[in-house]
Recover the amino acids of this structure.
């Protein structure tokens, strides 16, 4: 039941905002809808925690600890983002970068995006999963091009084409999957249901699944932003409105990775070799290293953090690739803390860029002097994302690194090199933005920094103390992934 | 919480107490009065309490706790044993003095708001305490990095100055890279048991290669924090940048946590030590010691000078550690105990005199707003308190009897005298050279300290506006006094201290100095035949002789004194600027140790209308090691940056090729 | 080898035609013709779907065929025609790689695709085994077309051709995906098309041309 | 500590304090003879001291307390050093409080203080002298320490009486290592006591002087004490040399008769030493100040070499 609500609210909210999204109260409405979604998500989560996995609507939807935790995360970040975007978008409008119509588009698309995310997470049907992912692409394409500036159009176009092509590969992979599955499960709807596939994964044809996995990996991997398929990501993050960057980094990448992992589970079950794992590790490492070096050359603050997202996605992918309870646990934890931290950073960055009126880092100086909250938000957020204890990101990186040391000793030096480079690259820039003499101006609306510090507080807490039920929950999920 | 561990709980509570004080600072962040006069003294109280707790903990069996925090499979483990207790003692005792000083030192309107400063400062203290208390890798790393982070914020207090930002960045970068090394070290140490508690690591059996790897990583990680050459570059940057109490805390206490880490890993977590580890550490230590002191001699900024002298002292400490490893590896336990005692003693001494000197520079800085030696001078008249208390520190750091610096060097030299007994060819030939180098270092540090003290406090003021320099306030005096008294007491009462240190020996090496250590009030570490030393009697001797001389001269003759101008060599136009400068004083050393330096000189030509002389001392390591790395990264990133050149067709090609490649892979 | 049933022979014919059409598209530089070819490909796809449905009696495939007809033969080409007329882009400018080379690469690609699809075809139980390889080939060729073309519009045509290939794979190799999925996919493609339509105009008004080399400003250097 | 020990202890100090200027005088006299002059006589130093003590002290305006108490400290430290070095007897209670290393430390203490005092006035001379003094010191001090180490490796002890006992009374062996040490020690002695070739006690030439530059601002009783302690320093070094390299005649106990004999022996040795010193000073020329490091570096190397020889040959 919560399910219906959970999916219904954002859908209806999207339609509703599509009608009234330009009204002055639209932003509040947006917040309200997101809040309801969040509430429903929590309710569903509690239910699943209490009763365990559930299948609803002739197995069309399947909720287990793995995806329900992502549901909770998604709805939470969605909610905070809506809170943040309220003043942010007002200021944008005030600066005349947005018209009312665009604002309506933004609100509607935001909700629809949430809907597609949740759908992708909740569905049990690999086909629907694909459909949802594609739909997510479409909605976000419109969001990225919201400003209609040449740059934003270019970014959106690249995003669209690259992800479209990628996702097409994913569809081919899905077809192959179905092709393999229908021999065991027979033609018809069941052959794409993850639960059924999971049961019979042992009997699926290895060769087909291998091919299928490659197409799925390339397809969904494009959306995860694995190097070298990542090229759309920095542009889309940099040119879209900041709330969109926040949800892209915080949610979309996670969901795409979720899809990849689901597929990996099946393939591992069928293909006896750990090919899938090695592929993931390879892509993960490559992404981490490339991203780390890209970071070194950034001038645009949002690109900077976009690349940092690529880096962290690489770390998660690597961890999932290693597999095993600890690594998966670490990866899930990293997913959580990364999306929280990164969205928090983007919130802070949003205000910073609005104050500076530019995204060029050399023109942003002395945030601390002008607005301590923004400054500290950015500083702490960056330190958190750089894996500085006592923030939670460190906890997961600690686990990942130590596990890697155990299972893949060859990989640890590479990881460490990348982490070191990334640290130097990001920190030197953040430091010069936060510290020093202020060069910025005041703003009409007071920034909403509640989201930033809520996220950071959660991340901090996770670094010091992971409540038992959460841990138990992660463990369940980790076990599911195997 | 499991078990009853009163002392451990006490220590943890004090850490919490510090955090609480810090948070209280935020309540009235702008009120310097509240923060300075109330909170910092409370922090000092915490320090004294911690010292007391630690003192009793040294004498007791290890206690441990498990907190319901941390990672699900890895809750926070706490443990206090003689080693950690000793370093806690160091932290508490030195920290108390520094806090008292800081109470009077921090003025508002200097960069960060006082309240925030208070928070960072006390979090720094607390995190150091937690580092020492941690008994599992995760808590240790968390505390370790928190320490780095809080100290980083303290260093960048005046972040409006670009150099300070740069210094902070370098500091945090090196700290972080080091921390990664430590992390790896723990990853090796747990040896397959999926347990990151130190207990598990103690239990783990590593084969020699892995053990060596762990040791190497630990040496790298902790060495980066301790500032061992060539990982020292952050130290002379960060120490001058930070406010003086912070420099004192960093140099006096924080560096010692790195020493603690090395000892913990080497003698506690690892079972066997290989003699050549010791050799490597000795080499590193010697080099750092000489390097540090030679550079210190060439400095013209008083805080940089002290920073380099810290490198020197850390070098000496590593020397001791290396020697201990060797003795231990060859099973000469008593000697190992002697050396370890000397090493730890030196840690404690360094904490006191270095903190004292840094605080003194802080007072000078406040009184004169001047950090470069070339513009100071004659302050002994303006600020007698600081001057005379700093003199104690100067003598102590110069390793002169009967102060504390001498005791540890004496012990270390004594243990060096045994190295010929090492059962390994070469080693027993080479290591004694260490004694020579150590002696050289000690003598050089005396040179450096004469320069330091003489140029700052003696002579005539080199700038006119030094004339209205004022002495430091009451609280600052108290802080300085505390540390100075500490130096004297540590110098005069080595025997009880050694009795304490023997507990650490027993825990770490399973051996003690035996009876002689506690024999009676003569310090006779090995045997009364071999060597004895009693600073108290020594001091008494000097005093008696002094008094007799004075009394004799005054009694037999007279005490008439006439004041006059100093002799001007018949050249009446001498100004105070014509005194020897710091550069001048360091010149012979620069000349002798030319190859150490990378010098840029500006010599005036006879025809200059405004002749000026400048000399810049730079560090080869920076140019040979760090810059190349930076360039390498830069170059790589430029190459990789080309990948992303904006054309969508190329991006599509990437995915196309990836796809094809993968297909080929699986075919 | 035994004689294949008529239906599969016909399906193979369709497959061959589709492959042929994709080559034709690679060779073709006139945009209008490209769209025609796309439509024809869609038609072939539709036919093959019907054939499969008829030969195997999978009734839902008829719907799928109808969907294809509506979308790929009528809908999208129509939209494209209108766009072309409105934006009047008639000629593709010089491709990045000249056409003969592209053809050669295409042939190599086809061989590669067959090769990689071989193991699957081995164990395909369906009457029309080797179509999967062809479908893959179509997809890949479309992919290459997207890489080589310079106009946004032609890139989109390539994208749609890719979709065709996917549909072909879906129908011929696996008798079609579950209906719900097909619907979803179709919907997505339609929406994508509409959004692209909007994009074209925006790009036009920003850069007053649909040439992709305007869209190369965002990069690292 | 027993009464007799105390006796010898006091005897040591008194002899040293009393005879140090005499040694100075004797060296001066020898130098005079060697350069065909008729010297000022053995007692000249005493006369000078008396004269200085009676004068009024003149002190620079900005001299701090440090400046004033350093001379007394100098004298005290040197007297104390005399109490550590076994020159007559090895039965010396006080040596338990300070061994060879502490002795070196004591000399270092004196050096640091006199340098500080020199910098206190703030004339360019004082600082120059202080710098040079520390320059000499930082090389001479470790060399001296190494000399001691060579000896203490032989006797497995750093306490001077034990060393002397071992060398003088236990076994009679030839120690090549000690030969190196002896040369090193001689060089250190020359440097430390401001003798030619490092420094020239009887010149006030600005460019070359070290010790004199430091004490330039001292006058009257302060200067007297400085001079006296300089003499004491020479005496002490001589005694160290004697104790290490020709310890025969130093008695193990402290019966009065023996002490008297020891005094005579010591006097003879010192006489020889003084003549030798004068000879060296006459024969060698003062070297440029920048050559001093090389000279002392050689000394340091020799001392280390001695230690190595000791380790290598075990003798």
């Amino acid at each position: 039941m919560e399910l219906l609500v959970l999916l219904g609210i954002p859908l209806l909210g999207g339609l509703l905002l599509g009608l009234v999204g330009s009204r002055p109260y639209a932003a509040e409405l947006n917040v309200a809808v997101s809040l309801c979604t969040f509430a429903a998500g929590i309710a569903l989560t509690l239910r699943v925690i209490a009763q365990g996995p559930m299948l609803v609507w002739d197995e069309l939807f399947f909720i287990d600890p793995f995806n329900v935790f992502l549901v909770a995360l998604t709805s939470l970040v969605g909610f905070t983002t809506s809170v943040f975007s309220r003043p942010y978008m007002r200021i944008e409008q005030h600066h005349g970068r947005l018209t009312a119509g665009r604002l309506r588009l933004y609100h509607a698309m935001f909700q629809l995006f949430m809907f597609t995310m949740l759908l992708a997470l909740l569905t049990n049907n690999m086909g629907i999963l694909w459909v949802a992912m594609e739909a997510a692409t479409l909605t976000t394409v419109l969001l990225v091009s919201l400003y209609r500036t040449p740059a934003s159009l270019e970014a959106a176009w690249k995003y669209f084409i690259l992800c479209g092509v990628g996702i097409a590969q994913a569809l081919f992979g899905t077809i192959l999957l179905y092709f393999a599955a229908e021999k065991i499960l027979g033609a018809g709807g069941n052959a794409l249901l993850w639960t059924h596939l999971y049961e019979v994964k042992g009997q699926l044809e290895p060769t087909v699944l291998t091919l299928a996995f490659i197409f799925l990996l390339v397809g969904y991997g494009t959306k995860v932003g694995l190097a070298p398929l990542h090229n759309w990501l920095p542009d889309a993050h940099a040119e879209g409105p900041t709330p969109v960057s926040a949800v892209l980094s915080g949610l979309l990448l996670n969901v795409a990775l979720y899809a990849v992992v689901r597929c990996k589970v099946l393939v591992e079950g069928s293909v006896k070799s750990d090919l899938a794992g090695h592929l993931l590790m390879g892509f993960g490492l490559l992404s981490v290293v490339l991203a780390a070096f890209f970071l070194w050359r950034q001038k645009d603050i949002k690109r900077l953090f976009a690349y940092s997202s690529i880096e962290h996605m690489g770390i998660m992918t690597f961890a999932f690739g290693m597999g095993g309870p600890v690594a998966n646990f670490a990866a899930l934890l990293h997913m959580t803390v990364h999306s929280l931290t990164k969205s928090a950073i983007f919130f802070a960055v949003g205000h910073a860029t609005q104050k500076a009126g530019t995204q060029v880092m050399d023109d942003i100086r002395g945030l601390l002097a002008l607005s301590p909250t923004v400054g500290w938000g950015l500083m702490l957020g960056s330190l958190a994302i750089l894996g500085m204890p006592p923030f939670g990101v460190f906890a997961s990186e600690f686990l990942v690194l130590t596990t890697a040391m155990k299972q893949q000793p060859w990989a640890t030096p590479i990881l460490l090199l990348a982490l070191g480079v990334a640290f130097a690259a990001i920190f030197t820039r953040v430091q010069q933005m936060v510290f020093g003499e202020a060069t910025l101006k005041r703003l009409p609306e007071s920034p909403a920094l509640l989201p930033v510090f809520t996220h950071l507080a959660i991340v901090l807490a996770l670094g010091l103390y992971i409540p038992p039920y959460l841990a138990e929950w992660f463990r369940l999920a980790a076990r599911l992934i195997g | 919480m499991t078990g009853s561990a009163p002392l451990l709980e006490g220590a943890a509570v004090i850490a919490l107490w510090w955090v609480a004080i810090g948070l209280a600072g935020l309540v009235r962040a702008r009120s310097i009065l509240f923060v300075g006069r109330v909170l910092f003294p409370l922090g000092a109280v915490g320090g004294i309490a911690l010292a007391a707790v630690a003192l009793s903990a040294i004498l007791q069996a290890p206690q441990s706790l498990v907190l319901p925090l941390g990672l699900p499979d890895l809750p926070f483990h706490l443990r206090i044993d003689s080693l950690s207790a000793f370093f806690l003692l160091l932290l508490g005792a030195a920290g108390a003095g520094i806090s008292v000083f800081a109470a009077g030192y921090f003025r508002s309107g200097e960069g960060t708001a006082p309240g925030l400063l208070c928070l960072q400062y006390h979090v720094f203290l607390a995190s150091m305490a937690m580092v020492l208390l941690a008994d599992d890798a995760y808590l240790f790393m968390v505390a370790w990095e928190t320490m780095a982070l809080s100290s980083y914020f303290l260093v960048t207090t005046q972040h409006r100055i670009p150099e300070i930002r740069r210094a902070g960045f370098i500091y945090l970068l090196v700290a972080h890279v080091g921390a990664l090394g430590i992390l790896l070290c723990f990853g090796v140490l747990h040896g397959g048991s999926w347990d990151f508690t130190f207990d598990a690591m103690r239990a783990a059996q590593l084969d020699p290669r892995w053990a060596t790897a762990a040791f190497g990583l630990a040496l790298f990680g902790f060495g980066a924090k301790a500032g061992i050459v060539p990982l020292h570059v952050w130290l002379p940057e960060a120490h001058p940048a930070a406010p003086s109490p912070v420099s004192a805390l960093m140099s006096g206490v924080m560096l010692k946590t790195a020493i603690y880490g090395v000892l913990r890993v080497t003698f506690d977590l690892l079972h066997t030590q290989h003699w050549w580890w010791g050799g490597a550490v000795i080499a590193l230590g010697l080099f750092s010691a000489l390097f540090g002191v030679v550079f210190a001699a060439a400095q013209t900024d008083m805080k940089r000078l002290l920073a380099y002298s810290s490198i020197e002292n850390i070098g000496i400490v590593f020397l001791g550690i290396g020697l201990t490893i060797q003795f231990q590896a060859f099973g000469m336990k008593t000697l190992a105990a002697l050396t370890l005692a000397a090493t730890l003693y030196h840690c404690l001494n360094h904490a006191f005199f270095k903190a004292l000197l840094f605080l003194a520079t802080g007072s000078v800085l406040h009184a004169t707003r001047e950090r470069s030696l070339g513009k100071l001078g004659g302050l002994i008249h303006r600020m007698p308190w600081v001057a005379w208390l700093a003199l104690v520190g100067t003598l102590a750091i110069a390793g002169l009897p009967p102060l504390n610096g001498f005791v540890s060097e004496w012990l270390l030299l004594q243990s060096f005298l045994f190295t010929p007994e090492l059962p390994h060819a070469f080693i027993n030939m080479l290591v004694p050279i260490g004694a020579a180098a150590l002696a050289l270092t000690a003598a050089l540090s005396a040179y450096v300290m004469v320069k330091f003290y003489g140029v700052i406090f003696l002579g005539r003021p080199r700038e006119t506006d030094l004339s209205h320099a004022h002495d430091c306030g009451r609280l600052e005096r108290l802080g300085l006094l505390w540390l100075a008294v500490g130096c004297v007491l540590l110098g005069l009462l080595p025997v009880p201290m050694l009795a304490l240190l023997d507990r650490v020996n027993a825990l770490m090496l399973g051996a003690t100095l035996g009876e002689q250590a506690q024999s009676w009030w003569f310090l006779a570490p090995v045997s009364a035949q071999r060597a004895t030393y009693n600073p108290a009697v020594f001091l008494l001797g000097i005093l008696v002789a002094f008094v007799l001389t004075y009394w004799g001269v005054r009694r037999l003759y007279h005490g008439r004194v006439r004041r006059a101008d100093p002799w001007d060599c018949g050249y009446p136009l001498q100004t105070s600027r014509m005194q020897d400068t710091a550069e001048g004083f360091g010149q012979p050393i620069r000349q002798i140790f030319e190859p150490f330096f990378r010098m840029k000189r500006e010599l005036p030509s006879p025809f200059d209308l405004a002749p000026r002389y400048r000399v810049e001392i730079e560090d080869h390591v920076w140019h040979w090691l760090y810059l190349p790395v930076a360039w390498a990264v830069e170059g790589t990133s430029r190459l990789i940056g080309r990948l992303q050149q904006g054309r969508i067709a190329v991006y599509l090609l990437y995915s196309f090729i990836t796809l094809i490649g993968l297909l080929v892979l699986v075919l | 080898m035994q004689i294949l049933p008529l239906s599969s022979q016909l399906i193979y014919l369709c497959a061959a035609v589709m492959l042929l059409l994709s080559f034709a598209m690679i060779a073709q530089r006139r945009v209008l013709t490209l769209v025609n070819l796309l439509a024809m490909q869609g038609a072939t796809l539709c036919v093959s779907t019907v054939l499969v449905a008829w030969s195997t009696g999978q009734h839902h495939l008829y719907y799928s065929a109808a969907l294809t007809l509506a979308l790929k033969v009528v809908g999208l080409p129509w939209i494209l025609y209108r766009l072309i007329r409105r934006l009047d882009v008639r000629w593709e400018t010089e491709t990045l790689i000249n056409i003969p080379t592209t053809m050669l690469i295409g042939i190599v690609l086809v061989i590669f695709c067959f090769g990689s699809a071989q193991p699957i075809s081995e164990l395909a139980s369906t009457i029309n085994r080797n179509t999967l390889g062809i479908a893959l080939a179509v997809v890949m060729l479309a992919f290459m077309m997207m890489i080589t073309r310079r106009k946004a519009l032609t890139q989109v045509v390539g994208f749609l051709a890719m979709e065709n290939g996917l549909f072909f794979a879906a129908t011929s190799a696996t008798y079609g995906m579950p209906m719900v999925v097909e619907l979803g996919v179709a919907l997505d493609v339609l929406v994508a098309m509409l959004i692209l339509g909007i994009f074209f105009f925006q790009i036009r008004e920003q850069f007053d041309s649909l040439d992709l080399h305007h869209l190369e400003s965002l990069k690292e250097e | 500590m027993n009464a007799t020990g105390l006796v010898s202890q006091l005897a040591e100090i008194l002899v040293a304090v009393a005879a140090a200027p005499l040694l100075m005088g004797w060296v001066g006299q020898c130098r005079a003879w060697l350069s065909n002059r008729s010297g000022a006589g053995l007692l000249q130093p005493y006369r000078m001291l008396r004269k200085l003590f009676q004068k009024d002290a003149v002190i620079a305006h900005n001299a701090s307390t440090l400046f004033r108490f350093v001379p007394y400290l100098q004298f005290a430290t040197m007297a104390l050093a005399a109490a550590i070095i076994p020159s007559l007897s090895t039965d010396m209670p006080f040596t338990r409080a300070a061994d060879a290393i502490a002795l070196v430390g004591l000399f270092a203490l004196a050096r640091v203080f006199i340098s500080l005092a020199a910098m206190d006035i703030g004339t360019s001379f004082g600082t120059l002298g202080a710098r040079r003094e520390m320059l000499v010191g930082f090389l001479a001090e470790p060399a001296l320490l190494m000399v001691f180490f060579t000896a203490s490796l032989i006797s497995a002890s750093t306490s001077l009486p034990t060393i002397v006992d071992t060398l003088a009374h236990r076994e009679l062996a030839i120690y090549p290592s000690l030969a190196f040490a002896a040369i090193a020690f001689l060089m250190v002695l020359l440097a430390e006591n401001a003798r030619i070739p490092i420094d020239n006690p009887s010149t006030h030439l600005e460019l070359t002087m070290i010790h004199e530059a430091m004490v330039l601002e001292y006058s009257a009783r302060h200067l007297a004490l400085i001079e006296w302690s300089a003499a004491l320093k020479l005496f002490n070094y001589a005694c160290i040399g004697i104790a290490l390299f020709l310890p025969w005649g130093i008695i193990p106990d402290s019966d009065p008769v023996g002490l008297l004999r020891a005094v005579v022996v010591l006097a003879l040795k010192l006489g020889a030493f003084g003549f030798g010193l004068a000879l060296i000073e006459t024969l060698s020329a003062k070297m440029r100040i920048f050559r001093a490091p090389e000279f002392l570096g050689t000394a340091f190397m020799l001392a280390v070499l001695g230690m190595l020889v000791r380790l290598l040959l075990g003798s």
Observations:
- Strands of chain A lie at 54-56, 61-63.
- Chain A has a mean pLDDT of 87.
- The longest helix of chain A spans residues 150-185.
- Chain A touches chain B through 66 residues (CB under 8 Å).
